[in-house]
Amino acid sequence: MRLLFIIPEYPPYSAGGISTFYRHILPELSKQGHQIHVLVGSAFTSKQPSYELDGVTVEFLDSNVVASNLAKFNRYQAIPEFQRHLAAAWTAWEQVNGGRGYDLVETTDWGMLFAPWMISPESPPTVVQLHASIGQIDFHDPQVDSQLQGNLVRLLELTLLSVADELQTYSHSNAQAWKKLTGRDVNNIPPAMPFISDIQASEKSSHGLVVGRVQYWKGTTILCEALQLLGEKAPIIEWVGRDTTYRDFNTSMAGYLKQTYPDIWGNKVQPLGTFSPEETCQLQAKANFILVPSIWDVFNYTCVEGMAQGKVVLCSQGAGAADLITNEVNGLTFLAGHAQSLANSLDTLLSWSQAKREEVGKVAQETIKTRLNPQFIAQKRLEVYEKLVNHGRYSIAPNSWLIDAVSPQKPLDKPLGFLDRLPLRELANYLLERSLKKFGKRSL
User: Which tens digits make up the pLDDT trace of 3-53?
Assistant: First the structure.
């Protein structure tokens, strides 16, 4: 089969979860005799040189064309991030000529990249891989200054995905969530993870390790509260990952944590910043244990990476990767968003002997080796692809209102004309406050 993948990130220019997911599976699909072409890009990526590696041909979205296509969606100029997502999605569709010549297209739910493929009647059969949509992320970590976008995006995502040819994800919880929302069956196929031989750390640490963005839904507050509950017994946890915003554009998550949990954040939890994938891997090998405190996560690769290295992993049941863990057999799980449950799991771990930890780590390693074997996972995915190609596209077509909402249109002469309906006093006061904030930042 000739398979086309439209995805927002791919190595070597990204090491995020979506990049990791495809890095492990696409070369295996190629090994099994299929032609793999990847178009990489999103609303916020820049064009990079094309390349071919491991039988996978990779090209990048033309960011200059994305910029020029923004005008076709200037009716959404009041929501610039959403406007840019749609411009990027349609630029990708144009760049690959609507998928002509391919047997099947796979795209992701993130960034509205799936939109053109859902409404274009001549597109090849399309799989939407559900990683974590922008509407989902906003729902679990809402920003007070982007509620208009969040609500609009969720409505459009739900309606578009309800008419997708095939929906697929890699955790039971995410499959159930989307099934409930769309009324559609959602395939749940685990991700591939090549077996990694033991990585020897230059030294061992007595600290735990979290790898992930410093973000609310990654469990930052829950971890701080759990460590407060443990008091003097609380271990030191290092946190690798970049800072993000919390609640609004002007609030840093790390700043909020430092202010709210001054005895924990920066002391018991030590933020280290970001590192290269290779350096992060070494930190994982060095760590005493791996912790995934997420309130919600479609999967979470750091859980799998820790298990593959033979580490004891404590994983929130809010992360899809918890599907792989049998409590106290190949790791530890705890209730999502429940500080006392996390504290109890940490207390259990601290009571274990070194021999018990090594035994659990070995079982964890074997779990990854057998259940996430790339050959096995690739075969399961190919069975879904072949069935879809033979069956054809989904029988229910999108309605005209939906098509109009996400399609390119003739640019409006006054895209911000809706501001004329707002009271001038409110606009003037807002502009004054915004100007003062900007002036204050420049003065610092």
Answer: 999 999 999 888 889 999 999 999 999 999 999 999 999 999 999 999 999
Q: What's the half-sphere exposure (Cβ side, CA atoms, 13 Å) at 126?
A: 30
Give pTM, 2 decimals.
0.92
**How far is residue 331 from each of residues 100, 199, 220, 303, 359, measured CA to CA in Å?**
46, 19, 21, 10, 10
Identify the CATH assignment for 2-192+377-411 out of 3.50.50.60, 3.40.50.2300, 3.40.50.150, 3.40.50.2000.
Answer: 3.40.50.2000
Tell me the CATH number for domain 208-372.
3.40.50.2000
Question: Counting Cβ atoms within 10 Å, is residue 313 exposed (0-12), middle (13-18) or buried (19+)?
Answer: buried
Q: Which residue spans of the chain are classified as CATH 3.40.50.2000?
A: 2-192+377-411, 208-372
CB 30 within 8 A of CB 36: yes
